[in-house]
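If you are new to this repository, start here. Below is one unmodified record pulled from the training split, so you can see the exact layout before writing a loader.
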Amino acid sequence: MEEDSAVRCLVEYEDRPIGYIQFYEIEEEKRLAYGYLETTDKIFGTDQFIGETAYWDKGFGKQLVTSMRDYLKSDHKADRVIMDPQQWNIRAINCYERCGFTKVKELPVRELHVHLPNPHRGDDHDLRSKLILRDHSTRKLINFYL
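And here is the target side for that same chain:
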């Protein structure tokens, strides 16, 4: 079994687990798919969620994303931070855009999806493609810990 290089983190608030985040340096295969093969930039990707709905719409997602972005830029010397959310996940995309990320391109889905009913999005979501977002922030922000 091949090991990946993702660093996985539980997100806690007041000693309660409320979400998850992982980060990883983008390897050559993904650089090609994302259109970054020609650059020597140090690029990191992140995947995250706030799983406890009681913590939605309270700024935790924005705090999590900006903190990780700043951490990757300062401690790992990332030149770029990218994400590839599902297009149906408007809540997440809105959060990422508020954090300074912009839509760059549409990607075909290259992963296995299992469809489970979800009362928060209905059954008409589009699993055919994902968006790639790139951080365009040049400001240095303070790291926050949830």
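Two things worth knowing about this chain: The two ends are 34 Å apart (CA to CA). The first helix runs from residue 28 to 34.
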